């Protein structure tokens, strides 16, 4: 069952790597029931923000809370939060099924659910194949299956459309919208503005680690000719690369 | 903890490198049999001789092979980026490292003792009543050395795991294990007396004979540690490496 | 030429190269420390003990450090390209493939030659200065008499490095290659040393550690290995250690899909 009230809440979140500020006093809230697009130029701090939410990186100050708690304090986190950060991040010598089962077991999820998710992302036919031979698109699908394993109420996807074919792009769009329609919280980062305009309801734009805009797609497209124009106008001042954390 | 353990167990079973490492350690049995057949044939010609016991002579092979299991348990996750998925699934870094240590420790403990015992028994069976030197003592006399040898393999694997967590690099961690196993003891041997036996007594591979109450080598003579102290020192190697590894895993961003 | 320049840049720009070279050079400090300890011990010994005080040639003890580090440098020069997938870019840039291996070998070999020589000769001179006439004149042999052996010892370091390049390109994984390298240079000699005669001397004579003494017919130091090979044969064996895996690796690189 998806958990209701899934909320991602950033409070003055700041992350410093040496002298660079990757995330700079960032505060915003992601609410359930719709897809929130997370936009910003390369190096704006989107991936760092997601890593901070997941407790992979420790914030220099401020807090990132999921359902009001720090991620690391969740007893079975995969049932509350699912994330796809880096599609290539898997041992190439492991089969797709075993890769998922390794993650599933940590949260008491059984092999039945693993097969179900492989089916859902269209990888059931290659479940026993080594992931080293997968294309980027297949790895994205596997990463999405991993995020969905615990049937979490909060989902974060970092550039999930990268490497997908037109079929896959369409599939992601429908998946995101249906997950949101089930009452889940979806935070989705992407550089494809046309795609984002079709998928997201809310938009958060960051630049150089700072919040630039937090509005609905509708508000943005009323003020600007398109989401792309809105994005380019709003981020014009923050195009210089910030931290290296992509 | 139980769930993290079961996941780590599957991780270890589902990659080929584990089987290469186990296979390479299992070569000891093959070499041990070959060795015993060879020295037995020499004994036929010469009557009796003093040959090294195969489970002692080939021990470094088992040590370095199984130590890589410990190293790869963590460095392969860093190399592939899988560590981020693992830490997302198990946010408590202590739990993750402990689960890895339990699996690596258990697998290497069982594998090492099986390989050692099979080699031991096969060598004695082949030797029969020929006088080869190593087969003059009874099993109960040889047991402490066998056990210490097996434990040393597990300790090295755990040291590899800890160093892997510190260095995050397969090459660096394996080289560090190699340094502890071969380079440092080698250098210690050439220190001027009495420092050579003092330092050598503390070297990881030299703790094994000290636990069994044997001398270090013909060059160094007896070690300075009593069997009990040597055993504590051996276990400390693993605990210290794991503690340092945990500190780095806990403090650093993944 | 451009392949050489590219391989040089690749090696120069990664941290592991700086680390392995730095740790190798740290061998000189180790030699210094050992020599200082030896001198301290010798000077505190009673006059009766002094004639019997023994010391191993410290540059030979320290040699293990650059050998291992440069071997790892060679391994990483090839396996890191497989680990990152950069090998595909490299081979797209140089489709004939073998020049990539040749370029790598030259760059790694030269770095290892310089590093190894620096460690051997610096350690030798440090020890010569510190130990002076102690330990029965161990370091009083004229430098010109030691020069052939020191040169041969230094040459083993690039041999290790090229052995690493070769193993890396055959096995394509850092862990496997380093374990095999270590097995070949540490585990095998231990086993060979345990063999009954005549095998211990026969096989001991072809161990890398035995070759410098055989090449130079050096009698100034004791070796734990055999010493049966004539100089030319020993030199040939040393070259084989470097070239055989390298040729096998190049052949595989040219044949295999990447």
UniProtKB/TrEMBL annotation, chain B:
The chain crosses the membrane at residues 20-38, 58-76, 97-123, 143-164, 171-191, 228-250. The keyword Transmembrane applies. It comes from the Bacteria. Keywords: Membrane, Transmembrane, Transmembrane helix. It holds the Pfam family ABC2_membrane_4. The keyword Nucleus does not apply. Coiled coil: none annotated. This is ABC transporter permease. It comes from Nonomuraea glycinis.
From TrEMBL, chain C:
It comes from the Bacteria. Keywords: Membrane, Transmembrane, Transmembrane helix. The chain crosses the membrane at residues 21-42, 62-84, 105-131, 151-171, 178-195, 232-254. This is ABC transporter permease.
């Amino acid at each position: 069952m998806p958990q209701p009230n899934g909320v991602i809440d950033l409070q003055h979140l700041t992350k410093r790597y040496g002298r660079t500020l990757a995330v700079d006093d960032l505060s915003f809230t992601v609410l359930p029931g719709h897809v929130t697009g997370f936009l910003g130029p390369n190096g704006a701090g989107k991936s760092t923000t997601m890593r901070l939410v997941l407790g992979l990186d420790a914030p220099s100050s401020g807090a990132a809370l999921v359902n009001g708690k720090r991620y690391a304090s969740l007893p079975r986190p995969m049932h509350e939060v699912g994330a796809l950060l880096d599609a290539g991040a898997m041992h190439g010598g492991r089969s797709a099924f075993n890769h998922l089962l390794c993650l599933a077991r940590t949260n008491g999820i059984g092999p039945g659910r693993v097969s179900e998710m492989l089916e859902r992302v269209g990888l059931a036919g290659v479940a026993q194949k080594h992931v080293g031979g997968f294309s980027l698109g297949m790895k994205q699908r596997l990463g999405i299956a991993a995020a969905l394993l615990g049937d979490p109420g909060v989902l974060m996807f970092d550039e999930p459309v990268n490497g997908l074919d037109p079929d896959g792009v369409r599939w992601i769009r429908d998946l995101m919208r249906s997950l949101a329609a089930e009452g889940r919280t979806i935070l989705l980062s992407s550089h494809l503005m046309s795609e984002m305009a079709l998928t997201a309801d809310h938009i958060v734009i960051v630049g150089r680690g700072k919040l630039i805009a937090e509005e609905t797609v509708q508000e943005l497209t009323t003020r600007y000719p398109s989401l792309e124009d809105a994005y380019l106008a709003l981020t014009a001042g923050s195009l210089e690369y910030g931290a290296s954390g992509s | 903890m139980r769930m993290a353990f079961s996941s780590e167990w599957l991780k270890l079973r589902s990659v080929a490198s584990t089987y290469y490492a186990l296979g390479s350690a299992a070569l000891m049995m093959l070499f041990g049999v070959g060795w015993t057949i060879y020295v037995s044939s020499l004994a036929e010609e010469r009557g009796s001789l003093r040959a090294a016991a195969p489970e002692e002579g080939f021990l470094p092979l088992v040590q370095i092979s199984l130590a890589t299991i410990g190293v790869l348990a963590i460095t392969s996750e860093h190399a592939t980026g899988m560590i981020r998925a693992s830490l997302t699934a198990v946010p408590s870094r202590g739990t993750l490292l402990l689960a890895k240590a339990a699996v690596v420790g258990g697998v290497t403990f069982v594998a090492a003792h099986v390989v050692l015992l099979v080699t031991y028994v096969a060598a004695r069976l082949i030797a029969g009543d020929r006088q080869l030197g190593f087969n003059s003592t009874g099993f109960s006399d040889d047991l402490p050395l066998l056990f210490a040898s097996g434990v040393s393999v597990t300790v090295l694997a755990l040291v590899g795991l800890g160093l892997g967590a510190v260095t995050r690099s397969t090459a660096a961690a394996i080289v560090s294990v190699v340094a502890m196993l071969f380079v440092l003891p080698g250098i210690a041997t050439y220190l001027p007396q009495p420092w050579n036996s003092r330092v050598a007594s503390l070297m990881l591979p030299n703790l094994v004979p000290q636990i069994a109450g044997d001398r270090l080598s013909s060059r160094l003579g007896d070690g300075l540690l009593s069997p009990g102290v040597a055993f504590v020192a051996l276990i400390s190697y693993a605990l210290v490496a794991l503690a340092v590894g945990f500190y780095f895993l806990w403090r650093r961003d993944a | 030429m451009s392949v050489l320049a590219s391989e040089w840049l690749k090696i120069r720009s990664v941290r592991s190269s700086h680390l392995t070279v730095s740790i190798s050079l740290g061998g000189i400090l180790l030699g210094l420390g050992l020599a200082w300890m030896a001198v301290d011990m010798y000077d505190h010994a009673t006059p009766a003990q002094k004639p019997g005080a023994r010391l191993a040639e410290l540059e030979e003890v320290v040699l293990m450090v650059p050998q291992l580090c440069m071997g790892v440098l060679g391994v990483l020069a090839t396996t890191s390209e497989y680990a990152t997938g950069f090998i595909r870019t490299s081979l797209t840039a140089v489709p004939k493939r073998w020049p990539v291996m040749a370029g790598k070998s030259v760059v790694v070999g030269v770095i290892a030659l310089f590093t190894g020589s620096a460690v051997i000769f610096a350690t030798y001179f440090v020890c010569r200065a510190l130990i002076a006439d102690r330990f029965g004149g161990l370091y009083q042999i004229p430098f010109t008499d030691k020069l052939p052996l020191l040169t041969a010892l230094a040459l083993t370091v690039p041999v290790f490095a090229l052995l690493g390049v070769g193993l890396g390109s055959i096995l394509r994984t850092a862990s496997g290659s380093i374990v095999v390298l270590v097995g070949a240079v540490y585990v095998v000699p231990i086993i060979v040393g345990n063999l009954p005669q005549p095998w211990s001397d026969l096989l001991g004579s072809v161990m890398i550690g035995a070759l410098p003494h055989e090449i130079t017919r050096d009698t100034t130091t004791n070796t734990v290995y055999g010493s049966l090979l004539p100089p030319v044969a020993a030199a040939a064996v040393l070259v084989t250690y470097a070239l055989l895996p390298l040729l096998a690796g190049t052949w595989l690189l040219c044949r295999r899909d990447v």
